[in-house]
Write a structure and sequence with these properties.
By secondary structure, the protein is α/β, with parallel strands linked by helices. The protein contains 12 helices and 8 strands. It has a single domain (2-256), classed as Alpha/Beta hydrolase fold, catalytic domain (Rossmann fold). Helix content is 37%, strand content 19%. Strand 7 (186-191), helix 9 and strand 8 form a beta-alpha-beta unit. Helix 1 packs parallel to helix 11 and helix 2 (68-82) crosses helix 3 (94-105). The longest helix has 15 residues, at 68-82.
């Protein structure tokens, strides 16, 4: 277990590999743990970091730090503390929103973002995500296989106030519209059967540097539901030259049908 002291509070992270930095940010259910397989794949060519955000996993609980702004400041402080430069971000749900918020403040620090099952508006978030306990959310959204249960074993550690505060922040913030104007290459990835997040229309989500893929048959945790498929998409996205739109990806057969 690795940790840094940021603003006099413990922030837990894990790191694998060597190369250009890739930051993995978890969502509202779980912690860094469900990124393990993706980190292992990425670490063959990149230095993969996964962070527990404020109020999740083994990072400190502090009600004053649960907004999207404060979670983005955590990422800023983490990068400064470890001397990490320009990054790729792989964020899931909450983590994707934090990545977009960070990018809106530090455009030159972000090379690209993969945003997985990311709500683009407050209305895209199911009401259960706003009200249920962390354990109830884990039971609802996971496949409940032994592997998924192990990957999401930190779900009960989450502070429910951290979930509620970040969802509320989305209601008051036109975050995606602001982010899209930055022209940062962004791949939006959705599990077709995610019950928690409404998939946006292709037209509303995409632009010159933003592309959307829907993975058929997968749910809220595509990195767990079908790790091999998800990680192939991840490695192809990370391998794109800087500044290239993700629409230029050479699509594999398993996701061609859902791409326009």
């Amino acid at each position: 277990m690795s940790a840094v002291l940021l603003d006099n509070s413990i922030v837990h992270y894990e790191v694998l590999g060597r190369g250009r930095p890739v930051i993995f940010l978890h969502g509202w259910v779980g912690s860094w743990k469900y990124w393990i397989a993706s980190m292992q794949v990425a670490s063959t060519s990149y230095r993969a970091y996964a962070i527990d955000l404020w109020g999740f996993g083994d990072t400190a609980h502090n009600e004053l730090k649960y907004s999207l702004d404060e979670q983005a400041r955590l990422l800023e402080a983490f990068l400064n503390e470890l001397g990490i430069g320009k990054i790729a971000i792989v964020g899931h749900g909450l983590g994707a929103l934090v990545g977009m918020k960070f990018a809106s403040r530090f455009r030159q620090s972000v090379d690209r973002i993969m945003a997985v099952n990311c709500p683009l508006t407050y209305d895209a978030v199911h009401s259960r995500l706003k009200t249920n306990s962390p354990q109830e959310l884990s039971d609802w959204l996971s496949s409940r296989t032994s592997d998924a249960s192990a990957a999401l074993s930190d779900a009960p550690k989450a502070d429910p106030k951290a979930i509620a505060a970040s969802v509320s922040a989305l209601q008051a913030d036109n975050l995606f519209a602001t982010f899209r104007e930055l022209d940062i290459p962004c791949l939006l990835v959705y599990g077709e059967k995610d019950p928690a997040i409404t998939i946006p229309t292709y037209e509303s989500a995409t632009s010159t540097f933003t592309h959307q893929i829907v993975l058929e048959g997968l749910g809220h945790f595509p990195m767990l539901d079908e790790a091999a498929k998800f990680n192939r998409l991840l490695t192809d996205f990370l391998a794109l030259p800087s500044g290239i739109s993700p629409s230029e990806l050479q699509m594999k057969d398993e996701w061609k049908r859902r791409v326009r």
